[in-house]
Specification:
Length: 138
């Protein structure tokens, strides 16, 4: 089983990465740090865009964990941008049947913030026919 962790934090070895490492314990997994990729905003078209590389790695995984710190009452912009780019670009069945988790951490998040993140990721998983396994929090 191939596990892919998509880290939406600009800090590659920060709290989000630590949360996922502790969740996965001694399991092997690959990490994609979004800070290392050029993923332009929805509607922009540049030759050096690497969005398709991320999607290809997601398609190869059996389990996908998307992780984000809590910024401005929501997930990081890198994660929002990744999700936005799926719209009208990725076939809804490309990730069908894959398990997906959302790792969300921050300093004293409110219930409303956690609920909003959970809702967004659950809906994203449903739209792309993945099995949403829930939120991992600190």
């Amino acid at each position: 089983m191939k596990i892919l962790f998509i880290n939406g934090s600009p800090n590659k070895n920060g709290n989000t990465a630590t949360l996922v490492k502790n969740f996965l314990k001694n399991k092997e997994y690959d990490t994609l740090n979004l800070v290392d990729y050029k993923i332009y905003s929805y509607g922009q078209h540049f030759n050096d865009d690497q969005f398709d590389e991320i999607v290809l790695q997601m398609a190869k995984a059996d389990t996908i964990i998307i992780g984000s710190p809590l910024y401005w009452h929501s997930m990081s912009g890198a994660i929002r941008n990744l999700l936005d780019r799926f719209y009208q670009h990725v076939d809804e069945n490309l990730l069908k049947g894959k398990d997906m988790y959302f790792a969300f951490q921050g300093y004293a998040p409110t219930k409303q913030q956690l609920d909003a993140g959970d809702y967004t990721m659950a809906r994203f998983a449903r739209l792309y026919n993945m099995n949403y396994k829930g939120m991992i929090t600190k």
